[in-house]
Automatic annotation (TrEMBL):
Assigned GO CC terms: ribonucleoprotein complex; ribosome
Organism from which the protein derives: Glutamicibacter uratoxydans (Arthrobacter uratoxydans)
Gene: rplX
Residue ranges of every copy of the KOW domain listed in the record: 4-31
Name of the protein this chain belongs to: Large ribosomal subunit protein uL24
PROSITE patterns (alphabetical): RIBOSOMAL_L24
SUBUNIT field: Part of the 50S ribosomal subunit.
UniProt xrefs under SUPFAM superfamilies: Translation proteins SH3-like domain
Amino acid sequence: MGAKIKKGDLVQILAGKDKGLQGKVLKVFPTDARVLVEGVNRVTKHTKAGQNENGNATGGIEVVEAPLHVSNVAVVDPETKKPTRVGFREETVEKNGVSKTVRVRYAKASGKDL
């Protein structure tokens, strides 16, 4: 997967029941190639009844976000607000008299940095 999609990115859903919606990435699961997107792919989850430390009853039916595969999401271009591919380029940055090469992510459609 690389680091094309990171936590905090604005992404658009390309496939599935929430196709076309946009949301912020809450968490990335690189080993499973999945991402958790805010407000998208919401599923009902049944949790077992129990008690928390205050003695209040827990459990019941909750609606939570489920992870999506990275192939079903695309990063949104900051300029056009449309989905785009992500590219990498190396730039030399000079800090305190020391030059350093840094990899920068950019939107391929507009060329803007992400």
